[in-house]
Amino acid sequence: MPMATFYIVSESSPQAEPSGFEQYVVFLTQHFAQQGAKVYLQCQDKLHAEHFAELFWQVDAHQFIAHNLVGEGPKYGTHIEIGDQGIKASYHRQLAINLADNQTTFAQNFAEVIDFVPCEENAKQRARERYKLYRQAGYQLQTIEIQYP
């Protein structure tokens, strides 16, 4: 059964700030990739995807993990692939991390999906809608309060 995990961002956490959230997404993506997962990072649009690709270049050298935008680099060569709503992820990706606001139809191609419940009320409502869509699609659901290392 596919699994969808929603990470809850509390208002008092460092992840409530945009830069703190971005750092957490990079950390989480690297964490799963280091465990051998082929991760797809679903961004809102191309600019958002390019922004995250740049963030992965800015990590310390000893933490660097190869990554690429969809369509760039080797098809199966990196553990982290970054794309957006307008394009399709490469094959053989087990885990998707969703940063897009409103579309979950891409998720049916993954055994596991990570999503987020932000603090801001409108974004929180969109997360609730995605939660319902995952449930209707047969995903086993869980929620986790973010704990930053």
TrEMBL record:
Pfam family for this entry, one: DNA_pol3_chi
Signal peptide boundaries: none
Residue ranges of the TM segments: none
Enzyme class, broadest EC rank: transferase
Keyword Nucleus: no
One GO MF term: DNA-directed DNA polymerase activity
Keywords noted in UniProt: Nucleotidyltransferase, Transferase
Entry EC no(s): 2.7.7.7
Domain of life: Bacteria
PANTHER family in the record: DNA POLYMERASE III SUBUNIT CHI
Protein name: DNA polymerase III subunit chi
Species for this entry: Vibrio porteresiae DSM 19223
